[in-house]
Amino acid sequence: MSECGSERGSASSTISLKSDRSRGIPPVFSSEPKHSKTSDQNTSSMQQNQDTLKEFESKAMALVKEALRAHTKVLSAKHKEMFEEDKQEDVLDDQPMEIDEESKEAALKIALHILRSMNEDEHAHTLERSHYGEMFMYQKKLRSFLKSKNEFISEVTTQQWPVPLKTIYTKLYLIEGDNEEVNKEHEVRQIETAFNRRKSSETQIKFEDIFKPLPNEQGKPIRTVLTKGIAGIGKTVSVQKFILDWSEEKTNQDIQLLFSLPFRELNLIKHERRSLMELLYDFSPGLEESLITELKNFKVLFVLDGLDECRLPLDFKGNKKCCDPKQSASVDELLTNLIVGNLLPEAKLWITTRHAAASCIPQLYVDRMTEIRGFNNLQKEEYFNKKIGDETLAKRVIANIKSARSLYIMCHVPVFCWISSIVLGEMCAKAAGGKMPKTLTQMYIYFLSHQTTRKQVKYSEDQQLDSQENYKVFMSLGKLAFQQLEKGNLIFYEEDLRECGIDVKEASVYSGVCTQVFREECCMQHKVFCFVHLSVQEFLAALYVHVMYTVEGVNLLIEEPKQMTQSKPVFDLHKAAVDRALQSENGHLDLFLRFLLGLSLESSQDLLRGLKIQVETSNTQSHWETIEYIKKEVNQSHPPEKYINLFHCLNELNDHSLVEEIQTHLDSDRDLVMDDRSAAKWAALVFVLLTSPEKPEEIDLKKYSRTKTGLLKLLPAIKASMSAKLDDCNLTADCSEVLASILSSSANELTHLNLSDNSLQDSGIEHLCIGLQSQNCRLKTLRLNRCGLTQKGCEKLASVLSCPTSHLRELDLSDNNIEDSGVQLLSTGLGNVCCKLETLRLSFCNITEKGCVSLAWAVKSNPSHLSELDLSYNHLGESGVKLISEALEEGRSELTKLRVDHNSEHWFKPGLRRYACELRMDPNTAHKLLILSDDQQKVTHGVEEQPYP
Question: Are 291 and 275 part of one and the same domain?
Fold first, then answer.
């Protein structure tokens, strides 16, 4: 048995694809005699099994050999010197075997495995390319390359980096739509304003669906998508996740080729000329070696991340036209022609940018505008739980950050969540905990402290951190931060660092403060730098300006900075900073100002001394002078975004007096009459209403003022609320222009508006209708009772009802003298198929049977939506009521509530006369000296007694 086994093992080990030996291996029988029927049956069964196995082995080898022969032919044709032709044909079976696709695929994997185990990678590649084709082979290489670049996210402060993107990625909030208004707020205020909005009226889109048309856009081609978002909101990480999902074949598999072209890398070759194909060779390894020469035959996506970082002119008007991907041109010309569609018109483009740079691309070339909103409240908690990894600790961190409103607002920005998780996670993990940061300035000082500690642990374990070195690094980075902030740049290059006296290697080592981005493509061996977030840049810039003034005696915020001969109070610096921030058109110094003021507190300076940063002793006099100066500015006529930031500044200075006074009144649930209050108190009221954790759903102007002035003061709060009660507030026609501007604003949230009992007149309604027809108007309910409306105003309202974008569902025009002519005009809009109005109230409107004819037509023409119609207190007559009723039955209307009560002729009289009645003196009760005449309706005094009973 052992010899037989050995022989069989030897035979098996030497079987080749061209050997028949495997077919002749005999079965092994027992040498013991067969003495019973059972034994004979067992022997027969064994024989049958052996025959089956023999046939299986024969067919399996034939199948493999037949399949592999095809691969051998491919290799022999490509590499003739490696293969000797086998002149002797091997016949494995009388009939050739049919091989299905699955078997071919399996045989290919066997062949590739064998070749690679032989280190014959070139032959394996030849075989694979022959089987799958050139596109598949390059796709495979491209996916592998993109996956390796995007599967990790480098968290420079963790000891366990790189971190897999999947473990920390939290899905962001992406909405469709464009804000065409020029936003003059700092980016932090923009995100705060955005999250004050209700999301029901916005169209949310998944990142993987950005090129798919919405249900109401079927047939609309989407070539170019522009995604906006503030710095640090997650644009680049979202791009990274999108590319990773594509490379792992999870989403967007209709896209065959994906090329990532970050603007910060394109800047490095902005002076060079090359063709589009040559440009792609630099960014996509393996493309040049592949046989792909024409991209127009494939579905291609270009991802252009960071338009705001672009240092190319993007001259859409002046650049030469280029239609050939192989034609040499400047990088700027390549980009503009790609965006316009001259180059690869069938390709898709995804461009990301901060808001300010979005206008660099003409809207003509953008098919879809989207915006990243950052984290909502639930996503904040999801992020902290993922990042911290300890549910109990994460809850403590979340509770602490919720206790500071200004910090919680900032957590809409993912990068600030990251900073907060580092600082608070470390502090909450300690047994003592310590005093938690309550202001932005404190949070960023603690963050800086964490970076310093990390540097000492990682690079100077056995050395005391050199205080001079620490000071030098902070000042160098601060100088860079301030200079780049002045220029509006978030990224910078090696030459920028050298100008500021920063050693590039030291900047790389100190990666917790300055993130270094390495790109090692063959044509661009350069380094690009940026701060981890714009707010970190603003903080370091403020720190640098503060130290330069208090220690070095140089005020960098005046036109010609120079060394001061004698020290001056820090108030002078603060005043200059406040003035410059108020003068800034785009609010780019708002956060810088908050940091600069916060650094002057004694508590902040104690923390800075712990970092070996030289600071002066806090000056109490300057502190109070700064507070008073800010309060004086709050009292001036500044735009809302300016005075709101000034209140944030007061918070950094630990002064809450104005806000607390207003909050106390609001908490008492009593009306807060503001007519005699200062502008500062009005500003404080708006600030409280806008930043309150429980933001009021409804603003009732009467609680504060019944004047146009009150309306203007409360506009920011009204715009952010869902409902505004402005009835009986002495508003006139010119107020309608202001309200129309609110309704036209993309930031408005109003869905319910009550303007009853205000003398708006037709001219005011005309202005209001401009806002009502805006695509940004979300109004569902509008009340205009007793507003002096006539038929002229009805004509404008009919246009609103006919507007396809109108959200209006309830309209109350009661007690206006619109008459039949007004109803006729109104009915043209009501009968339009675009009208979605559900409730219409026309009580006390002087309507007769003639008006009912128009309404009946409207109900029959558009029966699908109107469910309530109030025609009470009009002179409809029986015929008028019958017309309406028949129209409802005939048109199969959705109307479920029709009010026609108090249907009398006297209600047809206008104004107060409708309430008048004919009075007669009763002779039975008249005085005998009164003379009755004119059917007892006229009474005169007489001298003779009358014969009354």
Answer: yes
pTM: 0.74
pLDDT at 431: 63
Query: What average pLDDT does the structure give for the chain?
Result: 81
φ and ψ at residue 572, rounded to 5 degrees: -60, -40
* Same-domain check for residues 521 and 479: yes
Q: Which helix (H) or strand (E) holds 417?
A: helix 414-429
Q: Which residue has the tokens 């020290």?
A: 567
Residue 497 lies in a domain: yes
670 inside domain: no
Q: Is there a single domain that holds both residue 201 and residue 338?
A: yes
**Coil/strand/helix, residue 698:** strand
Q: What is the dihedral of CA 45, 48, 53, 54, to 10 degrees?
A: 140
- Scored b (16 or more CB within 10 A) or e, 2-12 reads eeeeeeeeeee
Kindly report the CATH number assigned to the domain that includes residue 322.
3.40.50.300
65 and 153 in a single domain? The answer is no
Helix, coil or strand: residue 225: strand
Question: To 5 degrees, how large is the angle CA 504–CA 506–CA 512?
Answer: 105
Residue 367 is given by DSSP the state S
**CB burial of residue 117 (10 Å; 0-12, 13-18, 19+):** exposed
Which helix (H) or strand (E) is 369 found in, with range?
Answer: strand 368-372
> Distance between CA 876 and CA 900 in Å, rounded?
8
Residues 722 and 862 in one domain: yes
Considering only the C-alpha atoms of the chain, give the largest distance between any 2 of them, rounded to a whole number of Å.
Answer: 162
**Per-residue pLDDT tens digits for 142-177:** 999 999 989 987 654 444 456 788 887 877 767 876
Question: Which range marks the domain in which residue 409 is found?
Answer: 376-438
Q: 635 lies in a domain?
A: no
Could you list the beta-strand ranges (E) of 604-719: 698-700
Question: Measured in Å, how far apart are the chain's first and last C-alpha atoms?
Answer: 150
Contact 869, 902 (CB under 8 A): no
Pairing of β 781-783 and β 752-754: parallel
Over residues 800-821, the pLDDT tens digits come to 999 998 999 999 999 999 999 9
For β-strands 526-531 and 491-493, DSSP reports them as antiparallel
Residues 348-390: pLDDT tens digits? 999 999 888 898 999 999 999 998 888 888 888 999 998 898 9
CB-CB neighbours of 600 under 10 Å: 24
* Helices 570-583 and 590-598: angle between axes, nearest 10 degrees: 160
Judge if 704 and 820 occupy the same domain.
yes
